[in-house]
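Here is one chain, start to finish.
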Amino acid sequence: MICLLWENNIVGQTIRSVRKAKGMSQEVLSGFAGIARTHLTMIECGTKQANFSTICKIAEAFDMRPSELVRKME
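Its structure:
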């Protein structure tokens, strides 16, 4: 179901999973993405919603296309 794709928990869990697989700390990822570490923490915990612009910044920090990151959320 497409609406489940953007549930905060799914987005956060996916970002956390990719971050850990790449061996990145929250501090490093947030720095590369140009967002506050606390913002990233809230996204990963599912307490804050990531907008598409933030998803794009995080994907770029992971050295992947936004579509690749979104695909992992499906």
